[in-house]
Write a structure and sequence with these properties.
With about 80 residues, the protein is an all-alpha fold. About 55% of the residues lie in helices and about 0% in strands. The longest helix is centred in the middle third of the chain and has 26 residues. It is elongated, with a radius of gyration of 24 Å.
Length: about 80
């Protein structure tokens, strides 16, 4: 997976960072029993996803792969010979 550069883009880092901050805010307010702050954290989490998608649309995400893999027939394998006796 290290060779695929999955998620190593400004869009991914920004979206995940904003969502992480939202999780921290929501978690802190959940412990303090403050529902309004909890829901504010949930809005921040959703905002992180929106920011990531917008940045990807702006070209700051990973480019889409355009090549397709050719479907090949499975290679037949021989059954091992049974010993007769």
């Amino acid at each position: 997976m290290a060779g695929s550069s999955h998620g190593h883009t400004p869009a991914a880092w920004t979206g995940v960072t904003i969502a992480f901050i939202g999780f921290c805010v929501a978690g802190a307010f959940m412990v303090m029993a403050q529902p309004l702050g909890f829901w504010a954290g949930m809005v921040i989490i959703a905002l992180g996803g929106v920011v990531g998608v917008v940045m990807r649309a702006m070209g700051l995400g990973q480019p889409k792969q355009t090549h397709t893999h050719a479907h090949t027939a499975p290679v037949p394998t021989r059954e091992p010979a049974r010993a007769e006796g």
